[in-house]
Design a protein that fits this description.
Elements lengths: L7 H10 L7 E4 L5 E4 L6 E3 L2 H10 L16 H4 L12 H6 L4 E5 L5 H9 L4 E4 L4 H14 L3 H22 L7 E7 L4 E3 L4 H8 L3 E2 L7 E3 L2 H7 L3 E6 L19 H4 L3 E5 H4 L6 H12 L6
Length: 295
C-alpha cells in the first residue's frame, strides 16, 4: 500500500478551502445585556409592534412565529397565533412555540416578563427606543441579529430621506403653532417633552406646549384651557380606545383649536410607535401643522 504524504503547505491550503464555522454575532441591548447568536434566528417572537414592524421591513418577517394582541398592522403577522399582551405575554405558550430569539421591551412595566424569559434560558434582546436616533440604533442592531445589516442601512437611509423632505418643507414656515398631543382622554394625559412625540412635533414644525420633561403628563382641564393651544391632536389606539371627539366633550369646545376645527385624530400605532414608519408619522403631523405648505 502506498502512503500519501502531503506537505505542510499543501495541508494548509486544503484546510483553507474548508468552510469555517460561522462567527457569533453579538449586540448590546438597552438593558446592557450582550446578546449573541451563532446564526440568524429561524423562529423569532417580537413582543412589541414597533419591533415587529422593524423586523418585517428588514426582511425578517418569515422568521416570526407569533404576535401580540395588538400586533395587527401587518396582515401576514395578524394571522399568526397571539401570545397575549406585549408587557405580560403568556410565557408558557410562548415557550411552547420554541423561539430561538425573543425581541422584548426594555421598560419598567415589562421588567418582570423580561426577567422571566431570561431565567428560563430564552435568548432575549430588549430595547426601549425613545428618539429618532434610538430608532436608527434599533434598526442597526436588529439588522445585525437577523443577518440583514445591508437592508438595515438601506432602511435607515429611506427614513432619513423622508424626514429630510419634511424638514425642507417646514423650513419655509412663517410661524410655529402650539400643540397639545392627547395620549389618553380619561384621565386626561398628554405627551411631555421627554417623549418621541415631542421630537416628531418639533421636526414637523410645531411646538409641544407642555413644559414637563416626562414622556407622559397628567393634565387638568383648567391648565389646558389656560394654555389654549393652536392645535389639538388626539391619538386613538390601545391607550386611548374610542375617545370622544373634543367638540363633543364638556369643556374642550372652549379651546381655540376645537372652535376653529384644528383637531386631528391619529393612529397611535403610527405616531407613538418608535419604528420604521417614523418618517410617515412626521409627514402626517407636518401636513396637519402646516397645511399651507402642502397646498
Amino acid at each position: 500500500m502506498k502512503r500519501i504524504i502531503l506537505s505542510i503547505p499543501l495541508l494548509l491550503a486544503l484546510f483553507a478551502c474548508l468552510p469555517s464555522p460561522a462567527a457569533a454575532v453579538c449586540i448590546t441591548d438597552d438593558t446592557g445585556e450582550e446578546v449573541c447568536l451563532e446564526a440568524p434566528p429561524a423562529r423569532a417572537i417580537s413582543t412589541y409592534g414597533a419591533f415587529t414592524e422593524t423586523i418585517w421591513e428588514l426582511g425578517g418577517g418569515e422568521t416570526l412565529v407569533a404576535r401580540t394582541k395588538n400586533d395587527t398592522t401587518i396582515p401576514e403577522v395578524a394571522g399568526l397565533p397571539s401570545v397575549g399582551t406585549g408587557l405580560r405575554p403568556n410565557i408558557e405558550y410562548l415557550l411552547a412555540l420554541k423561539p430561538d430569539l425573543v425581541i422584548a421591551r426594555a421598560s419598567k412595566a415589562g421588567a418582570e416578563t423580561l426577567s422571566s424569559l431570561r431565567e428560563r434560558g430564552i435568548k432575549t434582546a430588549a430595547f426601549d427606543p425613545a428618539s429618532v436616533a434610538d430608532i436608527y440604533s434599533l434598526i442597526e442592531r436588529l439588522g445585525k441579529l437577523f443577518g440583514l445589516e445591508e437592508r438595515g442601512v438601506e432602511l435607515m437611509e429611506e427614513i432619513k430621506g423622508e424626514i429630510a423632505a419634511v424638514e425642507t418643507m417646514v423650513a419655509k414656515r412663517e410661524r410655529t403653532p402650539s400643540l397639545i398631543y392627547e395620549v389618553r382622554a380619561e384621565p386626561l394625559t398628554v405627551a411631555g417633552h421627554a417623549s418621541l412625540v415631542a421630537e416628531l412635533v418639533k421636526i414637523a414644525g410645531g411646538e409641544l406646549v407642555v413644559d414637563v420633561d416626562k414622556k407622559l403628563v397628567r393634565f387638568d382641564l383648567e391648565k389646558l384651557l389656560a394654555i389654549n393651544p393652536d392645535l389639538y391632536v388626539v391619538q386613538e389606539g390601545p391607550m386611548n380606545l374610542k375617545p370622544l371627539p373634543p367638540k363633543e366633550r364638556a369643556h374642550h369646545p372652549a379651546l381655540k383649536a376645537v372652535r376653529e376645527g384644528r383637531v386631528l385624530t391619529v393612529d397611535e400605532k403610527l405616531i407613538s410607535r418608535p419604528g420604521p414608519r417614523v418618517g410617515e408619522a412626521v409627514e402626517v403631523l407636518a401636513r396637519f401643522i402646516h397645511p399651507e405648505l402642502w397646498q
